Protein backbone atom coordinates (compact mmCIF):
# COMPACT_ATOMS: atom_id res chain seq x y z
CA UNK A 1 0.00 0.00 0.00
CA UNK A 2 2.81 2.40 0.84
CA UNK A 3 4.43 1.71 -2.56
CA UNK A 4 1.31 2.86 -4.37
CA UNK A 5 1.06 5.92 -2.18
CA UNK A 6 4.70 6.77 -2.85
CA UNK A 7 4.19 6.26 -6.60
CA UNK A 8 1.16 8.56 -6.56
CA UNK A 9 3.06 11.16 -4.56
CA UNK A 10 6.01 10.86 -6.96
CA UNK A 11 3.75 11.28 -10.00
CA UNK A 12 2.18 14.37 -8.44
CA UNK A 13 5.59 15.90 -7.68
CA UNK A 14 6.89 15.17 -11.18
CA UNK A 15 3.79 16.74 -12.72
CA UNK A 16 4.33 19.93 -10.69
CA UNK A 17 7.90 20.41 -11.92
CA UNK A 18 7.42 19.18 -15.47
CA UNK A 19 7.52 22.04 -18.00
CA UNK A 20 4.15 22.81 -19.52
CA UNK A 21 4.21 22.62 -23.32
CA UNK A 22 2.89 25.59 -25.22
CA UNK A 23 0.00 24.05 -27.15
CA UNK A 24 -0.56 27.05 -29.39
CA UNK A 25 3.16 27.46 -30.08
CA UNK A 26 3.56 23.75 -30.87
CA UNK A 27 0.58 23.82 -33.22
CA UNK A 28 1.81 26.96 -34.94
CA UNK A 29 5.32 25.55 -35.50
CA UNK A 30 3.89 22.23 -36.73
CA UNK A 31 1.56 24.07 -39.11
CA UNK A 32 4.29 26.33 -40.48
CA UNK A 33 6.86 23.57 -41.05
CA UNK A 34 4.36 20.99 -42.31
CA UNK A 35 2.80 23.62 -44.55
CA UNK A 36 6.23 24.61 -45.86
CA UNK A 37 7.00 20.99 -46.74
CA UNK A 38 3.68 20.72 -48.55
CA UNK A 39 4.30 24.06 -50.27
CA UNK A 40 7.66 22.74 -51.47
CA UNK A 41 5.88 19.65 -52.80
CA UNK A 42 3.38 21.82 -54.65
CA UNK A 43 6.20 23.94 -56.07
CA UNK A 44 8.02 20.82 -57.27
CA UNK A 45 4.84 19.52 -58.90
CA UNK A 46 4.41 22.79 -60.78
CA UNK A 47 8.08 22.77 -61.73
CA UNK A 48 7.88 19.25 -63.15
CA UNK A 49 4.68 20.13 -64.99
CA UNK A 50 6.25 23.21 -66.58
CA UNK A 51 9.73 21.86 -67.32
CA UNK A 52 8.79 18.42 -68.58
CA UNK A 53 5.28 19.10 -69.89
CA UNK A 54 3.76 16.58 -67.46
CA UNK A 55 0.20 16.35 -66.24
CA UNK A 56 -0.41 16.83 -62.54
CA UNK A 57 -0.80 13.10 -62.12
CA UNK A 58 2.47 12.37 -63.95
CA UNK A 59 4.35 14.97 -61.88
CA UNK A 60 3.31 13.29 -58.63
CA UNK A 61 5.91 10.51 -58.70
CA UNK A 62 8.97 12.70 -59.36
CA UNK A 63 7.71 15.14 -56.71
CA UNK A 64 7.48 12.41 -54.08
CA UNK A 65 10.87 11.04 -55.12
CA UNK A 66 12.45 14.47 -54.80
CA UNK A 67 10.93 15.03 -51.36
CA UNK A 68 12.22 11.62 -50.22
CA UNK A 69 15.70 12.40 -51.57
CA UNK A 70 15.79 15.82 -49.90
CA UNK A 71 14.59 14.37 -46.60
CA UNK A 72 17.19 11.60 -46.69
CA UNK A 73 19.98 14.07 -47.52
CA UNK A 74 18.91 16.47 -44.78
CA UNK A 75 18.78 13.57 -42.33
CA UNK A 76 22.26 12.46 -43.35
CA UNK A 77 23.62 15.96 -42.76
CA UNK A 78 21.82 16.25 -39.40
CA UNK A 79 19.56 19.09 -40.52
CA UNK A 80 16.23 17.23 -40.57
CA UNK A 81 16.56 16.30 -36.90
CA UNK A 82 16.87 19.99 -36.00
CA UNK A 83 13.83 20.78 -38.12
CA UNK A 84 11.91 17.95 -36.44
CA UNK A 85 12.93 19.14 -32.99
CA UNK A 86 11.60 22.60 -33.79
CA UNK A 87 8.44 21.52 -35.65
CA UNK A 88 7.42 18.39 -33.75
CA UNK A 89 4.55 16.72 -35.58
CA UNK A 90 4.80 19.17 -38.47
CA UNK A 91 7.89 17.43 -39.78
CA UNK A 92 6.12 14.07 -39.81
CA UNK A 93 4.44 14.81 -43.13
CA UNK A 94 4.06 11.23 -44.34
CA UNK A 95 6.65 11.03 -47.11
CA UNK A 96 9.41 13.12 -45.56
CA UNK A 97 8.87 11.80 -42.04
CA UNK A 98 9.00 8.22 -43.26
CA UNK A 99 12.15 8.87 -45.28
CA UNK A 100 13.71 10.51 -42.23
CA UNK A 101 12.91 7.56 -39.96
CA UNK A 102 14.29 5.01 -42.42
CA UNK A 103 17.47 7.02 -43.07
CA UNK A 104 17.98 7.57 -39.33
CA UNK A 105 17.73 3.82 -38.68
CA UNK A 106 20.23 3.11 -41.44
CA UNK A 107 22.70 5.70 -40.17
CA UNK A 108 22.37 4.55 -36.58
CA UNK A 109 23.40 0.98 -37.42
CA UNK A 110 25.96 1.60 -40.18
CA UNK A 111 28.82 0.50 -37.90
CA UNK A 112 27.35 -3.03 -37.89
CA UNK A 113 27.95 -3.40 -41.62
CA UNK A 114 26.04 -2.92 -44.83
CA UNK A 115 23.82 -6.02 -44.68
CA UNK A 116 23.42 -6.76 -40.96
CA UNK A 117 23.50 -3.12 -39.91
CA UNK A 118 22.06 -0.83 -42.52
CA UNK A 119 19.81 -3.16 -44.53
CA UNK A 120 18.22 -5.11 -41.68
CA UNK A 121 17.52 -2.06 -39.54
CA UNK A 122 16.40 -0.08 -42.55
CA UNK A 123 13.69 -2.62 -43.26
CA UNK A 124 12.59 -3.13 -39.65
CA UNK A 125 10.54 0.03 -39.88
CA UNK A 126 9.87 -0.03 -43.61
CA UNK A 127 8.73 -3.66 -43.55
CA UNK A 128 5.96 -3.08 -41.03
CA UNK A 129 4.76 0.03 -42.84
CA UNK A 130 4.76 -1.75 -46.20
CA UNK A 131 2.91 -4.75 -44.78
CA UNK A 132 0.32 -2.51 -43.15
CA UNK A 133 -0.11 -0.56 -46.41
CA UNK A 134 -0.56 -3.73 -48.47
CA UNK A 135 -3.06 -5.23 -46.00
CA UNK A 136 -4.98 -1.95 -45.76
CA UNK A 137 -5.10 -1.64 -49.56
CA UNK A 138 -6.33 -5.23 -49.84
CA UNK A 139 -9.13 -4.64 -47.31
CA UNK A 140 -10.17 -1.38 -48.97
CA UNK A 141 -10.15 -3.14 -52.36
CA UNK A 142 -12.44 -5.89 -51.04
CA UNK A 143 -14.81 -3.34 -49.52
CA UNK A 144 -14.90 -1.40 -52.80
CA UNK A 145 -15.53 -4.61 -54.76
CA UNK A 146 -18.41 -5.58 -52.45
CA UNK A 147 -20.01 -2.13 -52.72
CA UNK A 148 -19.68 -2.14 -56.51
CA UNK A 149 -21.25 -5.61 -56.68
CA UNK A 150 -24.17 -4.46 -54.52
CA UNK A 151 -24.77 -1.28 -56.48
UniProtKB/TrEMBL annotation:
The chain crosses the membrane at residues 30-51, 63-80, 125-147. This is Stage V sporulation protein AC. Pfam families: SpoVAC_SpoVAEB (PF03862). Keywords: Membrane, Transmembrane, Transmembrane helix. InterPro entries: Spore_V_AC, SpoVA. It comes from the Bacteria.
Amino acid sequence: MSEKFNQQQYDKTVKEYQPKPSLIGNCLRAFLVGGSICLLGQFLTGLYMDLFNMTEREAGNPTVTTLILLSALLTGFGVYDKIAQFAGAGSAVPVTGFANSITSAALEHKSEGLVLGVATNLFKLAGSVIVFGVVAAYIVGIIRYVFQAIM
